[in-house]
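Hello,

Following up on my earlier ticket. Below are the two sequence lines again, exactly as submitted.
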Amino acid sequence: MIYLDNAATSFPKPEAVYRAVERCMRTFAANPGRSGHKLALQAGREIYLTREAAAELFHVSDPFRMIFTANATESLNLALKGILQPGDHVITSSMEHNSVLRPLSALKEHGIMVTIVPCTRQGSLEPDAVQAAIQPNTRLIAVTHASNVTGTIMPVKEIMEMARDRQILLLLDASQTAGILDIDLAECPVDLLAAPGHKGLLGPQGTGLLYIREGLHLKTMKEGGTGSRSEELTQPELIPDRYESGTLNTPGIVGLGAGIQYVKSHRAQIQERETQLTRFFLEELKKVKGVILYGADDVNAPRTGVVSMNIGDLDSCEAACRLDQEFDICTRPGLHCAPLAHRTIGTLDRGTVRFSIGFETTEAEMIETLDAIRQIASHS
Amino acid sequence: MDGDSFYVLSFDSTSHAIQSEKRIKESFEIVTIPTPREISGSCGLSIKFLSSDPEKIKAFVLQLAVPCSLYRLNGHKTGQSREVCEILRHK
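Thanks for your patience. The regenerated structure is below:
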């Protein structure tokens, strides 16, 4: 089996991640930080270690600015709904995932105005177009770091500087880049960053992070037990407690910690290999008659290990189904939860087949995948 | 100070207690305990110092990154509870 759906969930995980989850569940998965007995303390300590590792990875000095969530969708909901108030204007792009677009649609009903800046047909966002959309009441710019459809890396630094100059907040959706690209928040200080634990950070599903810059105070999405200030009936103000009500996913977070440690020591090599494999794959695909590629034409343009394509006039679901059933290759067809991205690149009618490379993907697997595509293309 | 009083540092967040525990351990012998009821009924975590040099403890506490309160507790219980004295509120 060849797994090329890492942009949805990375698979497999580093061996240390499996071991960490099992060790946690078997030996100390009590209620973290509650109760004060030795297992609860160990669970709390191990969660803190993951928080610290995540802060180090993104160059954040205070680990408590890293809030644990269930996934990037929850992080994005907390960020958007916690910041935007009636009368605010927010700018986003046409390459966003539904995890940004749907919360914004819901917020429109509460008096928040939304501008969706169109991207180019190659899926890239022009900073000038963002600038042109700024209004006097623009409170937030929410953009993806890289498209989950085309892999296009967005000009985040330019947008960050533009936002900072105008005192507009910037929320970065790092769903496709956390653990994959070098994200240094000391050098590129965005206000909010949402990341899933189960993609590039190589952790288990059910884990996510939201970085909240110091000084930003968000409305809560949930209130409840925090193991602290129990005598008070109102939600504590202190972070991380304010945003982390309810028992955390201790085994998941401990596994995420192991994933982040792996990323910390291997990220640069993984990125280099993934880039090489992606370029090789794109160059070879360009030679296959009938293959239509999306995203930047230039194989050297900045992009993650994500390639979207179609074969002749075959429906993307049919192509992916054949790859799976005849060739044992796992890809993702359809709209990838990003309908406006497909409208942008012209594939709203049939979606795309998406191949997303992971940290263990080999050149041999990409050669085998290319052979399968050639076979399908020659008969369609 | 009384021969058998001891010092307890209490926190508003269990995450803060756990971060501080890691730092304090490098300089003091401590145990992490549920916050004594005499300090607060909030079911949080506190750090009990097994050594009793108040000046050294105070100087260290002032360097911590999170809000916390240092208390001196009497080793002897009077009835159901013990005497508590807040000696430092940090942040």
